[in-house]
TrEMBL record:
<feature type="domain" description="Nas2 N-terminal">
    <location>
        <begin position="27"/>
        <end position="104"/>
    </location>
</feature>
<dbReference type="Pfam" id="PF17820">
    <property type="entry name" value="PDZ_6"/>
</dbReference>
<dbReference type="InterPro" id="IPR041489">
    <property type="entry name" value="PDZ_6"/>
</dbReference>
<feature type="domain" description="PDZ">
    <location>
        <begin position="143"/>
        <end position="199"/>
    </location>
</feature>
<dbReference type="GO" id="GO:0005634">
    <property type="term" value="C:nucleus"/>
</dbReference>
<dbReference type="Pfam" id="PF18265">
    <property type="entry name" value="Nas2_N"/>
</dbReference>
<dbReference type="GO" id="GO:0005737">
    <property type="term" value="C:cytoplasm"/>
</dbReference>
<dbReference type="InterPro" id="IPR036034">
    <property type="entry name" value="PDZ_sf"/>
</dbReference>
<protein>
    <recommendedName>
        <fullName>26S proteasome non-ATPase regulatory subunit 9</fullName>
    </recommendedName>
</protein>
<comment type="similarity">
    <text>Belongs to the proteasome subunit p27 family.</text>
</comment>
<dbReference type="GO" id="GO:0070682">
    <property type="term" value="P:proteasome regulatory particle assembly"/>
</dbReference>
<dbReference type="InterPro" id="IPR040815">
    <property type="entry name" value="Nas2_N"/>
</dbReference>
<keyword id="KW-0143">Chaperone</keyword>
<dbReference type="InterPro" id="IPR035269">
    <property type="entry name" value="PSMD9"/>
</dbReference>
Length: 221
């Protein structure tokens, strides 16, 4: 499911209900960002320990703990990643629920400028460049190819989409394509990688996409 979202400042609204929803939304976004930052830090620990993944064996061919990595630290880190991925999924579900509430408020109060989806907003609701810069993080990667029947195609990603967030990776911590591979490798099969992209010329409209990692081996595409 893709949710097209952008922020438009509330103007002269006295609605306690909307303010409550907005506060809840802001709190969930803060928690989402906190989790993603922690996931990035944990992924870095795995990278520094032989670039191991979530399923990389921690014993050698003779069944002894590997001596080239910190096995205890990796086990703790993996467990923390599993827990945080679960928390992240729950946060994304709660965010989607809150967005539905905000969309419903916008439908019932068409004269109000609120947090809403791009399809429901008129051109008058666009943010200024200065305002949008405070909301949308800088894209760090542009998609120049989508393989047929790939995970990316199934998630409705398009050539030209610019990636703002890929799991725990953003412009703040992106170094190379290896960062995306690490996120993909550390994601359990059947789980989702949450992405934020910018599509088209606008820096306001942000598309939030869940990229499902299949149970079988597959590349992003």
């Amino acid at each position: 499911m893709a949710i097209l979202v952008f922020i438009v400042q509330a103007v002269n609204t006295n609605s306690d209900n909307f303010n409550s929803i907005k506060l809840k939304y802001d709190g969930l976004v803060d928690e989402k960002n906190r989790i993603e930052k922690k996931l990035s830090e944990l992924s870095e620990i795995l990278r520094q320990n032989g670039n191991v993944g979530m399923d990389t064996p921690l014993v050698d061919d003779e069944g002894y703990p590997r001596s080239d990595i910190d096995v205890a630290l990796i086990r703790i880190t993996r467990n923390n990643i599993h827990c945080l991925n679960t928390d992240h999924k729950q946060i994304m579900l709660e965010l989607e629920s809150v967005l539905h509430e905000i969309h419903e408020y916008a439908r019932q109060n068409p004269s109000k400028n609120v947090l809403t989806d791009g399809n429901a907003c008129s051109s008058e609701n666009k943010l200024s460049d200065d305002q949008s810069a405070q909301i949308v993080k800088k894209p760090f990667l542009k998609i120049d190819q989508i393989s047929p029947n790939s995970i990316a195609e199934q998630a409705d990603l398009k050539v030209g989409d610019r990636i703002v967030q890929f799991g725990s990776v953003s412009a703040d911590n992106f170094n190379s394509l290896q960062d995306l591979s690490t996120v993909f490798r550390n994601t359990s099969p059947g789980s989702c990688i949450h992405m934020s992209i910018v599509r088209g010329d606008s820096m306001i409209n942000v598309l939030s996409i869940s990229l499902l990692k299949p149970a079988e081996n597959a590349s992003i595409g």
